[in-house]
Amino acid sequence: MKIPALAARRLAGVRNGSFSFSSSSFSSIGARLSSTRHGHAAAESEPSEAWNSARSGSRTGPQWIFLGCPGVGKGTYASRLAKTLGVPHIAMGDIVRQELSQPTPSGAKLKQLMNEGKLLPDEVVLELLAKRLQAGSAAGESGFILDGFPRTRSQVEALDRITDIELVLNLRLREDILIMKCMGRRICSGCGTNFNIANIDVEGEDGGPRIFMPPLLPPPACANKLTTRADDTEEVVRARLNLYAEECKPVEDYYRAQGKLLDFDVMGGIPETWPKLLDAVKPYLPEESMSVATA
C-alpha cells in the first residue's frame, strides 16, 4: 500500500472553496460538461463567473473522497470515518436513491438507467450534488467525505474547480468477492438499515491470507422485512463493474498523478479492515481527530 505524497498539503490551514453556490450554476456547468464529455475542453477553458464565486470563502474540515467498485464497502467505511472526523458523509448513491423514490418522470428515468447498470448523466449527478451541498451550507457543515462521486473524468474536472480535494481513498477488492457481496445486500423496508446475508470465506490469491467476511444479519424485528435492491442482480452487477473499470480508471489515474490517491486493499470484514484503514489514514488526520481515531 503506497502512501501518496500529501504531507505538505494534508492539513495546511486555510482550505479554499465554499459550499455557497446555486443549483442553477451547476445546471449550466452540467450542460457544458455534456458537450465535452469525451474531451478536456471544459478543463482548459476559462472559469466562468459562477465558478469563481463558488471558490470563494474557506472550509475548516477535511475534504476527502472514497473511490472503489460497487460493493467494496465505500459507504460503510466512509460513514465511520466521517463520524471520526466530525464531517458529513455525502453518499451520492443515497442521494440518487432518494430521487428514484420520487413519483416523477425524472425519477422513473433514473430508475431505468440504474436498473440497466448505466451511469447517470453528469448534469443530473451534479444537480443532485449541488442541492445536497446547498442544504449542508445552510446547516453550517464544514468539510465532507464524498462517497460515489466523482465517477468520470468530467466530474473530476467539475469538482476540481470548486474545491481542493486533499485525499482520495481507493478501496479495492477482488471481483468475485464484490459480486458475492452485492448479491447478498439487503435493506429493511421498515427502518431502512442495510444488511448483508453473504457469508464469504475464500482462499487468498497468490498465497495471500484467506478472506473471511461474515454476514451482517438483521435483528428479529427486521428479518421479515428485507428487500433486495433492483440493481443487485448478477447481470447488472457485472455491468456496473465493467462500467466502473472503463469510466473510473481515468479518475484514479488523475488523482494518482496529483499524489492524492491512497490505494487500500480490503482483506476481511469490518473488525479486520477498520483498524487497518485508520492506520492508513492516520498521517492525514487532524490532530484533534487522532485521539478519537485511536480510541
From TrEMBL:
Enzyme Commission numbers on file: 2.7.4.3
Question: Which keywords label this protein?
Answer: Chloroplast, Kinase, Nucleotide-binding, Plastid, Transferase
The record's InterPro entries line, in alphabetical order, gives: Adenyl_kin_sub (IPR006259), Adenylat/UMP-CMP_kin (IPR000850), Adenylat_kinase_CS (IPR033690), P-loop_NTPase (IPR027417)
Q: Report if keyword Glycoprotein is assigned.
A: no
Annotated catalysed reactions = AMP + ATP = 2 ADP
Q: Where is this region: Disordered?
A: 37-56
Signal peptide range in chain numbering: none
- List the GO molecular function terms: AMP kinase activity; ATP binding
Report whether Nucleotide-binding shows up as a keyword of the record. Answer: yes
The family assignment reads: Belongs to the adenylate kinase family.
What is the name listed in the Swiss-Prot or TrEMBL entry for this protein?
adenylate kinase
Q: What is the lineage of its organism?
A: Eukaryota, Viridiplantae, Streptophyta, Embryophyta, Tracheophyta
